[in-house]
Amino acid sequence: MIDLATGTIGEFFNLDPGYAFQSGDFIDAGIPVIKIKNIKAGYFSDHEFSYVSSRFLSSRANKLAKTGDLLISMSGNRHDGSPETWVGKIALFQPRGDFFINQRVGALRRKAGAKIDVRFASFLLSSMPYQELFISIATSSGGQANLSPQQILSAPLSYPRLETQIAIGELLGSFDDKIELNRRMNETLEAMAQAIFKDWFIDFGPTRAKMEGRAPYLAPEIWKLFPDRLDGEGKPEGWSLGTLGDIAQQAGKTTRPETLSPATPYIGLEHLPRRSIALDAWDGAGKVTSGKLSFKLGDFLFGKLRPYFHKVGIAPVDGICSTDIVVLNAKAPEARAFVICCISQDDFVAFTDRNSEGTKMPRTSWGRMGMYEVMRPKANILSAFESVVGPQLKKIVASIHESRTLAAIRDLLLPKLMSGEIRVKDAAKTAVTAL
């Protein structure tokens, strides 16, 4: 049994609020601003930043995030099953350059001499008991839950000795390090897939290289498949202009959630990440009440509501999804990689946005999406692209499942380590096996 002391968060941390940047302060590039949407359930997301001018560095330097800050979302929705809507989410800020903190994001900063390990505290405050505590003490205003600095700092905190905290933090951190490595690897794999797609099917790189007499840069069996000249319309010879509807089709059938197991995976728009095909979050269908669409492992999900949000992902499981998501797949197996790379391009997302219906809540549809013009290579080149990119896509999905398993093990270990049911050194052996 581990002896636990009890205090409050405020005994160990100060809370410094972010700055209330105005909408007119934001620009296309500059110093990133951390908003509530960047504080995920247990980690910091470096996607979808807003930016401000570097002039704020002189006037608002005290609003920069610091190494070791525990960033906390002080506003959000109450828990409805999706961690994307929680108030009180915690993320440990690691060194990565200058970042401003926006209003309603607080920075918990360890007091001088406080005997608390920040990494341990990040896991503890991200655990379900503390997440539920923050939700329960938050006050509601206009449908939004809010936490005040006083509510956060007065919240109780149970903790073991500092040496134990450090050991637990290092152990659980090893799981997070692997999860973060998987996330970065998936970003790299997706970027590689998009680069190959652009080279082959937009820039016609292999054909242009042949025309200019440059050395081959693909495997010989693939290089020989590409034409050695462009036709009068600027296309590789033998290729044709078509539409997405020629190679992709709408999938998914309307289904009633009450006919399914409550454990059936459910994906809503809130689960689809922006600008990433690595769809790694879903809930159970138990709380779903209205009709949804079914999808299969490997289908492609495209958020049709406000398509400019750029929400496109590969389904990592069988399940059901919101009707504000279009479910697609390729008509032929050899076109799968081509289709997902096509519909996750900026140009395609911009096309769906231009052709959506509605002003306040614009929506696209498969009918409109299917009209997008694409260059149709011969089937053997589609097959070659699938042979190169397909394994990368499978690795992305496999990494998602590995990371979810690691996160589950990590979350199960924390209460057992805190109670003394499992000793840190015994858990470390489990970690070596799992990692």
Q: Beta-strand level of the residues, as a percent range?
A: 15-25%
Strand order of the largest sheet: 16-19-22-17-18
* Helical/strand content category: alpha+beta
CATH top level of the largest domain is Alpha Beta
- Mean pLDDT, all residues: 92
Rg from alpha-carbon coordinates:
24 Å
Q: What is the total number of structural domains?
A: 2
Overall description:
The protein has 435 residues and is an alpha+beta fold. It folds into two domains: 5-159, DNA methylase specificity domains (Adenine-n6-DNA-methyltransferase TaqI, Chain A, domain 2), CATH 3.90.220; 185-391, Adenine-n6-DNA-methyltransferase TaqI, Chain A, domain 2 (Alpha-Beta Complex). Helix content is 37%, strand content 19%. It has a five-stranded mixed sheet with strand order 16-19-22-17-18, with no helix packed on it. A hairpin with an 8-residue loop joins strand 20 and strand 21 (312-314). Helix 3 packs across helix 6 (162-201). The protein is elongated and about 75 Å long.
Question: Topology of this structure?
Answer:
Elements lengths: L4 E4 H4 E5 L8 E2 L3 E4 L15 E3 L3 H4 L10 E4 L1 E2 L13 E3 L7 E2 L3 E6 L7 H9 L1 H10 L1 E3 L2 E3 L2 H5 L2 E4 L2 H40 L3 H7 L8 H4 L16 E4 H4 E3 L3 E2 L9 E3 L15 E2 L7 E4 L4 E4 L8 E3 L4 E3 L3 E6 L5 H8 L2 H9 L11 H4 L3 E4 L2 H41 L4 H11 L1
Helix pairs in contact: 3-6, 6-13, 6-14
Task: Describe this protein with a few key phrases.
435 residues, Adenine-n6-DNA-methyltransferase TaqI, Chain A, domain 2, 2 domains, five-stranded mixed sheet, 14 helices, 24 strands, 37% helix, 19% strand
